[in-house]
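User: I'm preparing a small set of examples for a lab meeting where we compare how different chains pack in three dimensions. I only have the primary sequence for this one, and I'd like the structure in token form so I can line it up with the others. Please keep the answer compact; I'll paste it straight into my notes.
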Amino acid sequence: MAKPLTRADGPQSVPALLHRNASEFANAPAYREKEYGIWQSWTWSQTRDEVEALALGFLELGLDEGDFVAVIGRNRPYLYWAMMAAQMAGAIPVPLYQDANAEEMAYVMGHCGARIAVVGDQEQVDKIIEVQAQLPDFERMIYLDPRGLRKYDHSKLDQYSAVQELGRANREKHIAELEARQAKLNYDSTGVMLYTSGTTGKPKGVVLSNRNVIETAKSSSEFDNLKRNDEILAYLPMAWVGDFIFSVGQALWTGFCTNCPENADTMHVDLREIGPTYYFAPPRVFETQLTSVMIRMEDASRFKKWLFDTFMAHARKVGPAVLDGKKVSFMDRAKYALGELMIYGPLKNTLGFSRVRVGYTAGEAIGPEIFDFYRSLGINLKQLYGQTEATVFITAQPDGEVRSDTVGVTCPGVELKIADNGEVFYRSPGVFVEYYKNPESTADTKDAEGWVATGDAGFIEEGSGHLRIIDRAKDVGQMADGRLFAPKYVENKLKFFPNILEAVVFGNQRNECTAFINIDLTAVGNWAERNNIGYASYQELARHPQVMDTIQSHVEEVNRSVAEDEMLSGCQVHRFVVLHKELDADDGELTRTRKVRRKIIEEKYADIITALYDGSKQVSTETEVTYEDGRKGSIKATLEIRDAAVQPTSHKMAAE
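Assistant: Understood. Below is the structure token output for the 656-residue chain.
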């Protein structure tokens, strides 16, 4: 096969990286997947052959250069190969969120004009069939799992393996064309298009070039000394830029192995079996894991709980220093080693983190208490700051400079500046090409010199060079008395408690802050079972008097913590309500990456917000909900509004 275009210092495209790995690391494992309880493995050489067969099949189906190929499903090697095959054929892969509803898929596929969709299973096939009348450019669907699809109309429906066989059978017919298309690919060719989460409006298509992907993968891999023998578990949404860079960009650059779990239900078991050395999770995953640990400890014997509490207190005291190689007394180090044997080691093994050498969290701010908990166990968890438009990496924390209150220093090749209004701007080789079919938004976000507006407010610390993010710039405001309002800061503190799943704080231009709280059904339900408290629904459990008392105690504890920060002490929560339903992406209240859509929530729950501020003790409300099968319904509830104790603060210091 003709060799794809490379530069003197490396390949110029994702397919070129694949060919390099198939040549240099031919027999090393590239992808693994657990299916029916057994791990299947493919080498780099086998991966290249699988991708090439699919790419040839694409050509036989009429895929043209510049076409868009939608890829939808859970993390599977076949779907990563579909993205590479599209690139190999000169087309552009567009991964979509697998839990998106049919209308959300219709918007993305219609916006980019996808001609072909490669999907995981019957669920995704059904969603596209439901909206295909809205997609004039759409022509064919390729499915991976045939279960349930035998009696479907297959005139425009092909099985994945059949397309590969089609490619192999017509290899001589198309191989010259496929090689010619790969030879055209260079650093400026489009590598992938990823859609934003749509926090404030319709998702935007972010065009990333091969330069963006490869340069970012190269610099970030070198930053953390990632190697070919590293292992990752690919379980985050394939439509998310982080998964693309970790499971495709960095995997191809370094040659490490990408492991795909069997399904969402077996993810934690598969995590323990693989024992990844390089691990990424958004704060929500770490919060959920911590909640499960705390629930188990509540069920433990008194002695075991005492042992856990005693050694965890010591871990919080010296664990991060031990991890960073700092000076720790002999007795403290000996006690920590005993804790490693009895508590920390077994706990890390249970979580699947025994071999983690580099761990990251990003996507939104993580609560300091949660972050410190994992580092105290000896897990090298760090924070990075990035976005789709940056091909992920803007700042990251170097080993030995890890703190809970910053997101690190600039990544290699990245420049930062802070605007007069506090907004963070960056420039780097990872800066996106454009928003597809949206020159106005492109110009608003990226200026002629390549500086990109992040939409986040922050500042760079003098001396250390670390970036501190305060909140989304549009969410940062002022209280009526001029004090700073930064809701995310308080929300993250609230979500540290296992009983609280989500929190939304209000207060901009008002005299005081209030909050919506979602209880964590798993944690609170476990408490109810231990105390023989019966409940029939989330709504009934959420309004139980003891649950309300517990949440109030959490809010007041957070208030005491917030009061200690002079700059943000005005953000203490005066009144709160425990919502009658979980905030849900299907109801438009969260993005698919589980970020809060504040504007929609403020509009949808305006009656509850009004009651929080007019002194009401309760409020009756009715809310529309979307069920899993797409049907609409409504929930009626009368919610109790609670007052929370707040701490006195210095208005002068806070205002300054």
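A couple of notes for your slides: Residues 458 and 469 are 4 Å apart (CA to CA). Residues 477-655 form a domain with the GMP Synthetase; Chain A, domain 3 fold (CATH 3.30.300.30).

User: Perfect, thanks.
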